[in-house]
Amino acid sequence: MKQTVKFLYISHEPVSVWFRYGLILFDIASIIFFVSTANIPHGPGLTAASLGVGLIILMDFCARMWISKDRWKLLRQIYTMADIVVIVSLLLDPFLTGNLAFLRILRALRLIHSYHLLRDLRRDSPFFRTHEDAVIAAINLMVFVFATSTAVLVFFVPEDAQTPYIDALYFTMATLTTTGFGDITLGTPAGKLFSVFIMVVGVALFVRLAQAIFMPQKVRYKCPSCGLFRHDPDAVHCKHCGATLRIETGGAS
Fold first, then answer.
1. b/e per residue, 131-157, with b = 16+ CB within 10 A?
2. 53: enclosing H helix or E strand
3. DSSP per-residue letters across 234-252
4. Mind listing the pLDDT tens digit for each residue in 143-169?
5. What does each C-alpha distance from 157 to 103, 112, 160 come to in angstroms?
């Protein structure tokens, strides 16, 4: 049984790769579910759905723990901690208030850092290999925007608002881009502090995304001499130690 689970999670075979991509599709579906129900009162139907999603995430978490060579190292990963928080919030959904629903958006952290996803994308997608830094930076920014918007929605947007999620998303984007229209503001001390957090972290993420897009792209290839693994696509020698590199390329177009 353990060998079968390990085969699905770490093998290079097509069945294993499609299984892991299936997990990514489930992650995307669960995030849509979390966002769309964050500000909705949970009746029996939503509670049952939350428990079902929580059990699936728990099974995935247990499987990864079971086959891990270093379980303590896996437990210390920020994405594993986010999974634990999400699982607890989902399984205890009948006993939690709606104000804790925003915790479930942490599941978005697994979209790009899911088990061996980067390895599969580097192998299967030439576009991802060429624009890896930009893709990861864009996804990290997207995760921050949706997680922050959900927190604003749960904690600061009035329940009688006509378009609550749009208001939360609008405020988040206006704040982190420092546009500052001022038509939607958080007047409480906690709201002002949260606005400062959005500005500081959001600007940093925007800068990281801009650097990844406009700076020269690098390819991943481990130098056999010094171990440096980021090089120019047409590099013949390692800039760090001068060793000869044999980076595979597609040739001239």
1. bbbbbbbbbbbebbbbbbbbbbbbebb
2. helix 44-67
3. T-SB-TTT--B--------
4. 788 888 888 887 888 777 788 888 888
5. 17, 29, 9
**Of 112, 63, 57, residue with least CA distance to 85:** 57
Residue 67 has pLDDT above 80, yes or no: yes
What is the pTM (predicted TM-score) of this model?
Answer: 0.69
Cα separation, 130 vs 122, whole angstroms: 9
User: Is residue 232 classed as helix, strand or coil in its secondary structure?
Assistant: coil
User: What CA–CA distance (Å, rounded) separates 147 from 135?
Assistant: 18
22 alpha-carbon distance from chain centroid:
16
Beta carbons within 10 angstroms of residue 182's beta carbon:
7
**Tokens 């177009």 -> residue:** 253
User: How many CA atoms lie less than 13 Å away from 39 in the CB half-sphere?
Assistant: 20
3-state secondary structure of 230: strand
pLDDT tens per residue across span 23-52? 888 888 887 887 777 667 767 888 888 888
Bridge partners (DSSP) of residue 230 are: 220
More confident residue, 191 or 249: 191
